[in-house]
UniProtKB/TrEMBL annotation:
Protein family according to the UniProt entry: Belongs to the group II decarboxylase family.
Name this protein carries in UniProt: Glutamate decarboxylase
CDD domains on file: DOPA_deC_like
NCBIfam families: Glu-decarb-GAD
Coiled coil: none
InterPro entries attached to this UniProt entry: Glutamate_decarboxylase, PyrdxlP-dep_de-COase, PyrdxlP-dep_Trfase, PyrdxlP-dep_Trfase_major
Transmembrane segments: none
Entry GO MF terms: glutamate decarboxylase activity; pyridoxal phosphate binding
Keyword Transferase: no
Keyword Lyase: yes
Source organism superkingdom: Eukaryota
Length: 496
């Protein structure tokens, strides 16, 4: 949900151009018009304003999928009016969701038999999936504490400072303390040793990230499982692990089969993954899968019958569309394991080309790792002339949306640019982007030299000649300070 505030002006009406063939009076912006207008005019008015939006294909800030095959588009449009919650009316769609849950559970090595039904649910993105998983951990911990006669009013979750904002939302909305492992320069993911040291009797779970939003790195879930198992054994606890695989869940199984991060680890009780990221479906669909039925408390599952049959449901959103679920099933059966593998390998190949091209400029340090999500995060070697924010803003002139942001505590002094490589980011697009980055660097260098000359002339006039009142070092420092003041822009966070 976006919170917005209407800005009123003397002329608060929307004037039509092409639509003036149908509409002669201005249209109000902030209240319903008194009369209806022709459909052609309504379309034209809305379409004209939408032209000012960014191009999703060039939005390199986002992990969200922006292209699907036409056949899948047709399936989605055919189902756009289906409300998924009406399971009795749309039993095939419900069956598709169940098939997807089971396919994901087997992909993540859940300990279930071939003919067994996995425990999981489709959600509106990974945000809802994380909320549901967190609620299950909280309720299970509370039930255990109640049975032991211990306080159960101060639950906490241990995770890294690099978590997505949805974890902060869960903590705030459902009154759970979020204990964050701080980062440090050169290490931008959660340290498993520090995480385990922060665990206490009120910890409902430790959340690990498979594919950090900031750098795309995979956290060491296997090491976390080992250390936490040892601590649980020593103290007599049973603190579990949740894996936030929103970005990496549909990458690791296909590219890093020997990487142990999923249900093969005994303490991993639930995993979420985004279908609308590298699951290759349009937004918004996510999935959460539990290790077993015992890991999802029964009291969280609601049973309704006023839609025709008894329907068990565990969701924060009651009504939701069926289109994305159908699209996810299409992708699973259309691509199969080898199809997903080919696409992920291609994405990694294009990310490698991009990374090498950025390194060849000589201006950047690569912050992201080669193993992880196909993205490139990079920082300027020298920020005295211009900053990553200037580069990000100047790339907009070519249509590129490349976020610039600072790292979380305690690495907030590091500012980076990040480019996410998706299926629709081809080799030719990568080469075009590299060319435009070179152009921007050249423009910023020229601008720096121009401003430097102007400032030097002003300093020379003010001092009555070089060195008259100030030393050479003082003049240089003054020039740098003036330049920074000139080019420094308000920092914007583009983290997705």
């Amino acid at each position: 949900m976006v919170l917005s505030k209407a800005v009123h002006s003397d002329d608060a009406a929307l004037h039509c151009t092409f639509a003036s063939r149908y509409v002669r009076a201005p249209l109000p912006r902030f209240k319903l018009p008194e009369e209806s207008i022709p459909k052609e005019a309504a379309y034209q008015v809305i379409n004209d304003e939408l032209m000012l939006d960014g191009n999703p294909r060039l939005n390199l800030a986002s992990f969200v999928n922006t292209w699907m095959e036409p056949e899948c588009d047709k399936l989605m449009m055919a189902a756009v009016s289906k409300n998924y919650v009406d399971m009795d009316v749309y039993p095939v769609t419900t069956e598709f969701q169940d098939r997807c849950v089971n396919m994901i559970a087997h992909l993540f090595n859940a300990p279930i038999g071939t003919d067994e039904t996995a425990m999981g649910v489709g959600t509106v993105g990974s945000s809802e999936a994380i909320m549901l998983a967190g609620l299950a951990f909280k309720r299970k911990w509370q039930n255990k504490r109640k049975a032991e006669g211990k306080p159960y009013d101060k639950p906490n979750i241990v995770t890294g400072a690099n978590v997505q904002v949805c974890w902060e939302k869960f903590a705030r909305y459902f009154e759970v303390e979020l204990k964050e492992v701080k980062l440090k320069e050169g290490y931008y993911i959660m340290d498993p040793e520090k995480a385990v040291n922060m665990v206490d009797e009120n910890t409902i779970c430790v959340a690990a990230i498979l594919g950090s939003t900031l750098t795309g790195e995979f956290e060491d879930v296997e090491k976390l499982n080992e250390l936490l198992t040892q601590k649980n054994k020593e103290i007599g606890w049973d603190v579990p692990i949740h894996v936030d695989a929103a970005s990496g869940g549909f990458i690791a199984p296909f590219l890093y089969k020997d990487l142990v991060w999923d249900f093969r680890l005994p303490l991993v009780k639930s995993i979420n993954v985004s279908g609308h990221k590298y699951g290759l479906v349009y937004p918004g669909v996510g999935w959460v899968v539990w290790r077993s039925k015992e890991d999802l408390p029964d009291e969280l599952i609601f049973h309704i019958n006023y839609l025709g049959i008894d329907q068990p449901t565990f969701t924060l959103n009651f009504s939701k569309g069926s289109s994305q679920i159908i699209a996810q099933y299409y992708q699973f059966i259309r691509l199969g394991f080898e199809g997903y593998k080919d696409i992920m390998e291609n994405c990694m190949g294009n990310a490698k080309v991009l990374r090498e091209g950025i390194e060849q400029t000589g201006c950047f340090n690569i912050v992201s790792k080669e193993v992880g999500v196909p993205l490139v995060a990079f920082a300027l070697k020298d920020s005295t002339k211009y900053t990553v924010y200037n580069i990000s803003e100047n790339l907009r002139q070519f249509g590129w949306i490349v976020p610039a942001y600072t790292m979380p505590a305690d690495a907030q002094n590091i500012a980076v640019l990040r480019i996410v490589v998706r299926e629709d980011f081809s080799r030719s697009i990568a080469e075009r982007l590299l060319s435009d980055i070179q152009k921007v660097l050249g423009e910023l260098e020229e601008h720096y030299e121009h401003v430097t000359k102007v400032i030097a002339t002003q300093v020379d006039i003010q001092t009555g000649g070089a060195g008259t009142h100030k030393s050479e070092h003082e003049i240089e420092e003054g020039m740098i300070a003036s330049w920074k003041k000139e080019v420094n822009r308000k920092k914007r966070s583009g983290v997705c």
